[in-house]
Amino acid sequence: MKSTRLSIILPTYNERENLPIIIWLIFKYLKGCDLDFEVIIIEDGSPDGTLQVAQSMQDIYGADKIVLYDRGKKLGLGTAYKAGLSLANGDYIILMDADLSHHPKFIPKFFEKAKEGDYDIVTGTRYDGSGGVYGWDLKRKIISCGANTLTQIALGPSVTDLTGSFRLYKKSVLNKLMALAKSKGYAFQMEIIVLAEQSGYRIGEVPISFVDRVYGQSKMGVEEILRFLYGVVDLVVRY
Ligand code: UDP
Ligand code: MG
Fold first, then answer.
1. b/e per residue, 92-112, with b = 16+ CB within 10 A?
2. In a mutational test of the pocket of ligand 1, which residue from 18, 77, 126, 188 has the highest number of ligand atoms less than 8 Å from its CB?
3. Which residue, among 30, 74, 213, 59, has the nearest Cα to 136 in the 3D structure?
4. Which atom of ligand 1 is nearest to the CA of 43?
5. Which of 175, 23, 33 is nearest to 91 (CA)?
6. What is the pTM of this model?
7. Which residue has the least CA distance to atom 12 on ligand 1?
8. N or C: which end of the chain has fewer CB within 10 A?
9. C-alpha 218 to ligand 1 mean position (Å)
10. How far, in Å, is the centroid of ligand 1 from the Cα of 201?
């Protein structure tokens, strides 16, 4: 019997090509670990047939390992995390993207870090140590760097990457933080950290290399950027 139970929440929207690879990588890198894990796919009504791919993943790996929740329509990331959390059996939760930008090889490192400092949250950072970003064009790099610099100045948090979403949480901690967070879009990741610091939770960081998606399209657009800027102002006013 493995000692630590982990639920990996994987929201999908048009990830037909990426899903089999990310699942394969998760199994490859977690097989040798002392982790009893499940993958919870939250399908957002993808028109590209991701649902059928997810069903075949269940057939291959088993319904105990791959949990599938088909929401039927595009409801977005925030509610996907909530839905995933309500289904999770783990004591620990990994939130990650399904587009291969977040490599499962970092998950064991997140756990090493969590144990090392008894952290409640371990967050992947692209902006410290060996962390980095690969494959983004200059515009996207400027947006991400700008967003992080802006939030560092405005909110002064202790972590170096506020907008990344590849993180390990104790489930009880994530439940509490999700109940408090109000932001949507990229600002949500930032608010979770601000709230965690205010609540006195311990946060550790692990450098990650973030690789831009090869298949499919990012959700980042003008609307996301404007919503993020609104989110920063809103957080500064509220906290
Ligand atoms: N996603 C989702 N619903 C949406 C938009 C995105 O489930 O409405 C998923 C998507 O499939 C991916 C993750 O959320 O697994 C992050 O999305 P994306 O890669 O487009 O965002 P970015 O990396 O550009 O911030
Ligand atoms: Mg992505």
1. bbbbbbbbbbbbbebbebbbe
2. 77
3. 213
4. 7
5. 175
6. 0.96
7. 97
8. N
9. 6
10. 27
Whose CA is closest to atom 13 on ligand 1?
Answer: 97
pLDDT tens string for the chain (239 positions)?
778 999 999 999 999 999 999 999 999 999 999 999 999 999 999 999 999 999 999 999 999 999 999 999 999 998 999 999 999 999 999 999 999 999 999 999 999 999 999 999 999 999 999 999 999 999 889 988 888 888 888 888 889 999 899 999 999 999 999 999 998 877 899 999 999 999 999 999 999 999 999 999 988 889 888 988 998 888 888 88
Q: Which two tokens stand for residue 181?
A: 């967070």
- Report phi then psi at 15, rounded to 5: -120, 35
What is the 3 state secondary structure string of 85-145? Answer: HHHCCCCEEEECCCCCCCCHHHHHHHHHHHHHHCCCEEEEECCCCCCEEECCCHHHHHHHH
What pLDDT is recorded for position 238?
Answer: 85
Count, residues in the chain: 239
- Give the pair of three-digit tokens for residue 32: 């040798």
Residues having CB within 6 Å of any atom of ligand 1: 11-13, 15, 44, 74, 76-77, 80, 97-99, 101, 213, 218-220
